[in-house]
Structure prediction request, 350 residues.
Amino acid sequence: IGEWTPPGARFPLEMAQDADVGRNSLLTYQLTSNPSFSLVMKESPDGSSQPELVLERELDREKQSSFELVLTAVDGGDPVRSGSIKIRVNVTDANDNPPVFAQDQYRARLREDTPVGSRVLNVSASDADSGSNARITYGFGKMPAKVLQRFVVDAESGMITLNEVLDFEDTRGFVLLVEARDGGGLVAQCKVVVEVVDVNDNAPEITVLSLSSPVPEDAPTGTVVALLKVNDPDSGENGQVSCELSGEAPLSIVASSGGSYKVLVLAKALDREEAAFHELVLRASDGGDPARTGTARIRVTVLDANDNAPVFSQAEYAVRVPEDVPVGSVLVTVTATDADEGLYGDVKYS
Prediction:
């Protein structure tokens, strides 16, 4: 009897035979007491009675899959004689139970450097039905193509594996909708939340937003020479960046209020006559373990200022001249130099 059979349905039973005649062959039937079934007699045109089994209430195979009944036929003789037969009722399964996941929501954490093909986790569902109605296959529900390309689920086992590389800086997590479908077409769904864990796979990047070069050598200390942007797409300590200048350049780094911007300013006076330019190497290091570094090179040219007076090669020249020297004769040549350049270094005499 199928568990979908409505109460009131009747099922004919085999009639008993008695070789006696008259009262000795008059038969009555009895059925062992069971709340799910009762016995009725169907009168035939020939006057005989056909026993029928009546379903009294709905069946549920998942609660009870079979019943053992005993049908007894009793004659009307004296002494009474009886015969009995066992009736086994097997309840046929109906697909009245959908699959049920062990958890409504699963969680997994994956490092962004997890190799392709690695197992994420195994979802599991069960079905109280039997046979093909209890056979479960797994698949993904409706999700963006970006997510469907990144993961695969085994239809038989429910094992989810990684199908493409992860990138924390691109996507920090995924929500997968996994479906379990039984052989009768009933479907259940659960969520799998995949958290992507950051790995220090990005070195800091230094971008020169502006650079004032050349810088006048008489520029005051504190003058802004360059504006830099330092960026590290990693998170947490992996994205915390510290900067330093290498060498003995007359510049220092000042962090802006935003944190990601750095300002290069003059830390001491410039002197073009000592150095006409400065080659700077800015190094940025993050807080990862191991740390990653990024560098940028900056060349700052010093613009000359007229801060040097001409200097004679001698402070005093002594010349002996005969009194009969002709007019126009060269008596002595004096020489002066200027450490400045260009017009500032051109010397005129008077």
Q: What stands out?
A: The chain has a mean pLDDT of 91.
